[in-house]
Description:
By secondary structure, the chain is mainly α. The chain has one domain (17-279): Lysozyme (Orthogonal Bundle). The chain has helices at 35-71, 76-88, 98-108, 114-125, 131-136, 170-183, 188-199, 206-209, 221-233, 247-256, 273-279; strands at 19-21, 143-144, 150-151, 163-165, 264-266.
Amino acid sequence: MFSELDYSWENLDRGVPPLYLERLPVDLKQHRQGKKRLFFMGLLPMVLMANEEIANEREQLLDILGRYQSAGRLELEERRKLDEMAKEYRISVEPLGESSLLQRLLKRVDIIPPSLVLAQAANESAWGTSRFAREGNNLFGQWTFTPGTGIVPRNRPQGARYEVRKFASLYDSVRSYINNLNTHEAYLDLRNIRMELREKGKQVSGRDLVKGLQRYSIRRDDYITEIDQMIRYNRLSRFNSARLRSSSAAAQSADSGQGGYGLFSTRVKLAGLEASLDQNPEL
């Protein structure tokens, strides 16, 4: 499939095809030489797709902010849109005026650099070979506290109630992870770092934001150092400038090619994706 779409490690400057990866190949562990490359190339399109959705939301938000600063008030439809965003990004609107709500949303409605997403996915899922990645499409070790909805870890402490979440697809896992960083109180430092970079007109990089992951792991600074080293060693910062190709070219090639792998679909085949996102408000 990668070959048909002219998608390779060496020609990312030609654009990344918008592939939707439903699950990882079961024999990924056997690809000792190319495992890293397959892992990163498989996930990169979905990271870019998720960030594109968020970038579009942010552009709408900035447009509303500009009109608010000019007129000093919001139209009814604009306020309704902000309320929808606030719900998606877990902000209580009751005590907030329009100006405060806009500022809080600006801090949350923003992308996560691909370099950081890919490094954490590789680290948390053991390059896609962990039990939770294989059985639950969970790349980032996210938990759930709803009994029976996830995977019970074999060494879970007695009395603990958490389970490792299951996702219908890897895209769901990527989208949920990004939403987690953008909304959970534990990652306020990450959002503050990103906001400060934005205000200074600087690029947002994974190596900058990794400093805000103190509470992602009980290993704290050691974890941050490990993720930073993964970004540097694998030269993942190059992916921060990667861009998606138009979906039409990818779809034409995929539809005429090898559709029997059961692993990939293109963006035009994602009719059911929006419904799944609506049904799971945490995504």
